[in-house]
């Protein structure tokens, strides 16, 4: 029996596979410093995505704080970081442009409700249908998107164009220094997360030497107060619902797909399982709250999650610390944070790209079936040029069609005669929509004897197309004055055929096949198979 949302929330922090707190003082330090590193990297991301969505930077920062904090406390996978994301921002921009920011807040609330319902009804379990090639394409595509998004930081704040000359050289040099520190530091010490140390060292160089490179403050002023509760100022009628529901449904789907795929990725890295349904509920609750407090909503962020995991963050403390640090930046430390050079944060994100991209893909693609290689490339390309949800759905559809085609060609039959002269077709392979035509071609109605047995011991009747194929064959044999019976039905096949009204004999087949029971077929139960 599925649990209620309150039950999910009540058991979230104490979940067996979700450690709430570290177990030692050094671990506390690692978790908190990891959270600080993530918070520093969240600032330009949240601001940039707010600009993409066409809203005030604080709307993005509030979303990063609220979504990050709530999912950290009750999410399905400790170590994951959530906040405002570009995948959602690109969908929001048209809504904000046409109807205004208040409609965005209402949409975020409805988005959260839909995500909670997805968790309550355990729709997250369908992520198991995502094949591994789709996961590889998702990871690689998102790594490329993260890398490309950093190019925006190379703009000159004064002119709006890309940097050139000495500022560009300085920017590239500082990015390189940041990446080198992150790479070399773990070889000497792990007392401080390497990304945090790199940000601190590069910031000290820039501020101490007064180097003319873009800083966080050049993006936007991040100082502000506490987020305030406010009911979205939109008319409560069906017209409003008609406007916001399509956006809410798309945002909910994209948010859950990205969150659950990130959950699977983090679970693989940390070696601990995550709760998909719990994560759906957590994302939904976070977005409902965010919508009422003036945030743009959000979902899991693979880049920041990778920063957290690589910095040693494994428990809820790290993600919660990141959210709290972000709020402190907004309330108290904005002047300091605004002096951090963007080059340091870009360097951190470039290292995330290098660590996230599955470099073994090129080797894997030479060894796996060609259709899997096509799916990897397809999902990667669609992720880069459109959005994650479209890419994943396309990848799953292509994989499913390829699987169906492969199974459709495996239908066959071995025939033999019994002592009493009956002909037995021993069907091999699944009978479903893809193999129904091939199934029909197995039989030789004109040349068969008066008694024909179709043996399903090595086959399964899967869907309505299979039922229609069986009925069609029954009609052909009946019209020829011959009898067709079915043998060795598994319990699920038996139930499917009996529910369709095709079985005349109302006794159960022996699941162990100790006794072979023959079942007559009722023609016309499905309207002649049409």
TrEMBL record:
Chief localisation class: membrane
Topology term for the membrane: Multi-pass membrane protein
Signal peptide bounds: none
Name of the protein this chain belongs to: Sulfate permease, SulP family
Organism whose genome encodes this protein: Limimaricola pyoseonensis
Gene Ontology, cellular component aspect: membrane
UniProt subcellular location: Membrane
Superkingdom, taxonomy of origin: Bacteria
Residue ranges of every copy of the STAS domain listed in the record: 412-501
Keyword terms: Membrane, Transmembrane, Transmembrane helix
Family annotation (InterPro entries): Membrane-Transporter-like (IPR052706), SLC26A/SulP_dom (IPR011547), STAS_dom (IPR002645), STAS_dom_sf (IPR036513)
Pfam families hit by this protein: STAS, Sulfate_transp
Residues annotated as transmembrane: 46-73, 103-121, 133-151, 163-184, 191-211, 243-266, 317-337, 343-362, 374-405
The keyword Membrane belongs to this UniProt entry's keyword annotation: yes
The UniProt record lists the keyword Transmembrane: yes
Family annotation (PANTHER family): SULFATE TRANSPORTER YBAR-RELATED
């Amino acid at each position: 029996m599925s649990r209620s949302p309150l039950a999910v929330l009540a058991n979230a922090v104490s979940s067996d596979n979700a450690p709430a707190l570290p177990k030692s003082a050094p671990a506390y330090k690692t978790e908190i410093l990891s959270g600080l590193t993530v918070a520093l990297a969240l600032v330009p991301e949240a601001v940039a995505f707010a600009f993409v969505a066409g809203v005030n930077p604080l709307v993005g920062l509030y979303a990063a704080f609220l979504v990050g904090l709530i999912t950290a406390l009750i999410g399905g996978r400790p170590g994951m970081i959530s906040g405002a994301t570009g995948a959602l921002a690109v969908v929001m921009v048209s809504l904000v442009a046409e109807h205004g920011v208040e409609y965005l807040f209402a949409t975020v609330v409805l988005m959260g409700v839909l995500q909670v319902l997805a968790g309550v009804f355990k729709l997250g379990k369908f992520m198991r249908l995502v094949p591994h090639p789709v996961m590889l394409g998702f990871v690689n595509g998102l790594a490329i998107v993260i890398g490309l998004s950093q190019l925006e930081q190379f703009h000159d704040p004064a002119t709006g164009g890309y940097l050139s000359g000495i500022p560009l050289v300085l920017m590239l040099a500082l990015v390189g220094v940041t990446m080198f520190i992150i790479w070399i530091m773990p070889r000497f010490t792990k007392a401080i997360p390497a990304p945090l140390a790199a940000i601190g060292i590069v910031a000290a160089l820039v501020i101490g030497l007064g180097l003319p490179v873009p800083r966080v403050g050049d993006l936007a002023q991040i100082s502000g107060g506490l987020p305030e509760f406010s009911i979205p100022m939109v008319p409560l009628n069906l017209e409003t619902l008609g406007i916001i529901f399509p956006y809410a449904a798309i945002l909910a789907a994209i948010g859950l797909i990205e969150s659950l795929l990130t959950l699977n990725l983090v679970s693989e890295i940390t070696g601990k399982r995550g709760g998909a349904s719990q994560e759906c509920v957590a994302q939904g609750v976070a977005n409902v709250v965010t919508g009422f407090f003036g945030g743009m909503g959000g979902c899991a962020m693979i880049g920041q999650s990778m920063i957290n995991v690589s910095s040693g963050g494994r428990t809820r403390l790290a993600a919660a610390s990141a959210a709290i640090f972000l709020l402190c930046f907004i309330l108290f430390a904005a002047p300091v944070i605004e002096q951090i050079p963007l080059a340091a944060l870009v360097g951190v994100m470039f290292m995330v790209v290098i660590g996230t991209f599955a470099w073994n893909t090129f080797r894997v693609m030479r060894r796996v079936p060609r259709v899997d290689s096509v799916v990897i490339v397809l999902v990667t390309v669609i992720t880069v040029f459109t959005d994650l949800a479209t890419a994943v759905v396309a990848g799953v559809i292509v994989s499913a069609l390829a699987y169906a085609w492969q199974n459709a060609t495996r239908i066959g039959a071995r025939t033999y005669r019994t002592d009493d002269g009956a002909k037995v077709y021993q069907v091999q392979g699944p009978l479903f929509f893809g193999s129904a035509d091939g199934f029909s071609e197995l039989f030789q109605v004109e040349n068969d004897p008066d008694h024909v047995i179709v043996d399903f011991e090595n086959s399964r009747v899967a869907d309505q197309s299979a039922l229609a194929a069986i009925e069609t064959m029954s009609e052909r044999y009946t019209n020829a004055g011959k009898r067709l019976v079915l043998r060795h039905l598994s319990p699920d096949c038996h139930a499917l055929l009996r529910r369709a009204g095709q079985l005349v004999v109302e006794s159960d087949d022996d699941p162990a096949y100790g006794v072979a029971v023959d079942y007559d077929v009722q023609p016309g139960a499905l309207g002649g198979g049409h």
